[in-house]
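Section 5.1 Outputs to date
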Amino acid sequence: MPDPRTQGFDCRKAVPALFTAPAHSAPLGIVWGRNSHFPPSYRDSLYIAYHGSLGVQDPAKYRDCKIERFVIQNGLPIRSEVFATGWRAPKQMCRDAWGRPVGLVIGVDGAMYVSDAKGGRIYRIWYRGR
């Protein structure tokens, strides 16, 4: 018996993913930058905390502990870039890292707060301006 939830669904109308993350990268936290005090070009961005991989043995397939910024234009992501990193040394596995970012929140002060599942810390990222 066909699943009633899929009746009338046409796979030819499905929209492919605009961005994907590699296996074991563990994207956990997500926040819009709209209420931040970052420069205007950074406010209409989506920020994702990547917890990094633990079980990957091949360094070529290793996923970093980082925060990535997805630039949004006209409601669609157009590119991504690393926004914050440094929780581990180069070629160091995440199990040996200093921290592993998990949750992201924009505080009432306009700063981004990052929870760290490994180090048990909260990091504050803010824009000082020039």
